[in-house]
Amino acid sequence: MIDVGVAQPLTVGAALFAIGAFAAVFRRDGAAMLRSLPLMGAGAVVALAGASRLASSAGDPLAGQELAVLVALAVVSLTGVAAAALLRGSGR
Questions:
Q1: Mean of the per-residue pLDDT values for the chain?
Q2: Among 5, 15, 1, 8, which residue's Cα sits nearest to residue 54?
Q3: Integer Cα distance of 50 and 44 in angstroms
Q4: CATH of the domain at 14
Q5: Which residue range forms the structural domain that includes residue 75?
Q6: pLDDT for res 17
Q7: Per the domain annotation, does 82 fall within a domain?
Q8: What Cα–Cα distance (Å) separates residue 64 from each residue in 47, 52, 55, 57, 68?
Q9: What is the pLDDT of residue 14?
Q10: 8-47 b/e with 16+ CB inside 10 Å = b?
Q11: Is residue 29 part of a domain?
Q12: Number of CB atoms found within 10 A of residue 75's CB
């Protein structure tokens, strides 16, 4: 099995978040900016899952994963609400 340290998940999470933030900043319309929110959320989830996996005790390897799932659900919900508000504001 591959031994994963603390740096690998945090690096991947930071890279995903940075790519999503870059895409959100340089998009002109609101719909394109909304497409980058799940990527930013995925970066946060990867970082949280990696950090919680390494911080948990050996007795409970799934400890802390609940927070990562909660953040993922919050990002999906936020994206849906923002898309609905964008569509309502545009008059479609």
A1: 79
A2: 5
A3: 10
A4: 1.10.287
A5: 7-90
A6: 92
A7: yes
A8: 12, 5, 8, 10, 7
A9: 93
A10: ebbeebeebbeebeebbeeeeeeeebbebbbbbbbbbbbb
A11: yes
A12: 19
* Inside any domain, residue 2: no
> Is pLDDT above 60 for 55?
yes
Please tell me the total number of residues recorded for the chain in this structure: 92
11-26 confidence digits (pLDDT tens): 999 999 999 899 888 8
Q: State the Cα–Cα distance between residues 22 and 9, nearest whole angstrom.
A: 20
Q: What secondary structure letter does DSSP report for 59?
A: T
Q: How far apart are CA 34 and CA 49, in angstroms?
A: 23
pLDDT single digits (tens) 77-88: 888 888 888 777
Structural domain count, the chain: 1
SS3 15: helix
